[in-house]
Amino acid sequence: MIAGKQQLQQSQLFSLKGSILTLSILTLISFTYLSFKSLRPPLPLSPATPQLTLLPFTTTSTPPSPARIFASKKENNVGEGEDDNDEDDDLITDVYHSPKLFKLNFEEMERKFKIYIYPDGDPKTFYQTPRKLTGKYASEGYFFQNIRESRFRTENPHQAHLFFIPISCHKMRGKGTSYENMTIIVQDYVDSLIAKYPYWNRTLGADHFFVTCHDVGVRATEGVPFLVKNAIRVVCSPSYDVGFIPHKDIALPQVLQPFALPAGGNDIENRFCRTSLGFWAGHRNSKIRVILARVWENDTELDISNNRISRATGHFVYQKRFYRTKFCICPGGSQVNSARIADSIHYGCVPVILSNYYDLPFNDILDWRKFAVVLRENDVYDLKKILKNISHDEFVSLHKNLVKIQKHFQWNSPPIKFDAFYMVIYELWLRHHVIKY
Ligand SMILES: *[C@@H]1O[C@H](CO)[C@@H](O)[C@H](O)[C@H]1NC(C)=O
Ligand SMILES: *[C@@H]1O[C@H](CO)[C@@H](O)[C@H](O)[C@H]1NC(C)=O
Ligand SMILES: *[C@@H]1O[C@H](CO)[C@@H](O)[C@H](O)[C@H]1NC(C)=O
Ligand SMILES: *[C@@H]1O[C@H](CO)[C@@H](O)[C@H](O)[C@H]1NC(C)=O
């Protein structure tokens, strides 16, 4: 009897173990299910980790219509059904790693995210306002301008999730400040904020961020060690050899606006368009560019020229090449990033990224392999073989996806939902979860 009872207890124990296991699996499943269904995603997307791919997605062949994308949404219909409304179709495509999570997190961000901009510093020198919205570093200017006009700004530091240090390195450079002096100016400014306000010391700057597109500007922040180590650096030069930390920092897309010509897209049905296989013209200011030019300069199918075509050359010669080409080669220059990537995207020419280890903008949200060809520098020798090996159908798919993500690489003033500004803000939103005071 006793043995029988023990057996019974044992089997009860086993079945108990079994039910705990089942229960936890069920919990996990329903948790996952709920997280897609509920208004508040329980877990933040962790930026640098691979994201869940069990999401159902449908691929739409319709080109994005701005009117639909930008139409304002009723707050409460979020995630109610699989096909709650048409305007979401544009997001439900596999150019995103996790379309549904992106949509849910994005909407939560729109409702809640608040950023405090330190009010200190004379706007007539290097602070608060951007120098200009044109040129190579326009992204910096747009960010400074956009954040003031946006719904994310708060005057109340107690409401803030993150703190913006509004010092413009672009503007300093515009005034001819030397690198050494820039470093001192940044250091003095940040030290003054640390002394005056209690916010920095709470986290040693982990909930603070600064924005600079200028590569010298990135280096100028190195005088404040915690600014590099702890604060979120939103920079245009996200190569790992300049200390970019992917899970902490944010790659700011470098965009040269205004674009000279309208966006190119969905034009491949016209067989006179995009007749050229590959194109690059630029300065040979890096090792990879020298090799690219040397290997391919006389090729009849790849249009590679080591003479930079001035953007100002009459009749937009440079820009029109992007329209005529299938694949635009984007080798790193003095910096791995360049406005060429955003140009390619805008003109509908599939970018071919030729770089070793470079954090592409919005890498954690967008699946770059769906609209770009991402290669290592060593692939330069096989470039033609690799590009010719891409079937027409694959190219059409890359090109169509490229058109879908164009809006994410465009700055506007005032900012427009899903544009470059909103994407950067979204990246900041993902990172604010890391620390909360
Ligand atoms: C750097 O700062 C020093 C001291 O303020 C000043 O004398 C010098 O002219 C500055 N140099 C540049 C290039 O800005
Ligand atoms: C923050 O800490 C630094 C270094 O300990 C100190 O000098 C500064 O006064 C502190 N700031 C505030 C507002 O207390
Ligand atoms: C390309 O052509 C030029 C002029 O004919 C020649 O000097 C150069 O060596 C050629 N380059 C290659 C890689 O064949
Ligand atoms: C060509 O494409 C096929 C399939 O798309 C792939 O398996 C193969 O490795 C590619 N070859 C080269 C040289 O890229």
TrEMBL record:
Segments passing through the bilayer: 20-36
Keyword Manganese: no
UniProt xrefs under InterPro entries: Exostosin, Exostosin_GT47
Keyword terms of this UniProt record: Glycosyltransferase, Golgi apparatus, Membrane, Signal-anchor, Transferase, Transmembrane, Transmembrane helix
Region (Disordered): 62-90
Location within or outside the cell: Golgi apparatus membrane
Limits of the Exostosin GT47 domain: 110-389
Bias (Acidic residues): 80-90
Domain of life of the source: Eukaryota
GO terms assigned for molecular function: glycosyltransferase activity
Keyword Transmembrane helix: yes
One GO cellular component, as annotated: Golgi membrane
Membrane topology: Single-pass type II membrane protein
PANTHER family, per database record: EXOSTOSIN FAMILY PROTEIN (PTHR11062:SF43), EXOSTOSIN HEPARAN SULFATE GLYCOSYLTRANSFERASE -RELATED (PTHR11062)
Family: Belongs to the glycosyltransferase 47 family.
Protein name (record): Probable glycosyltransferase At5g03795 isoform X1
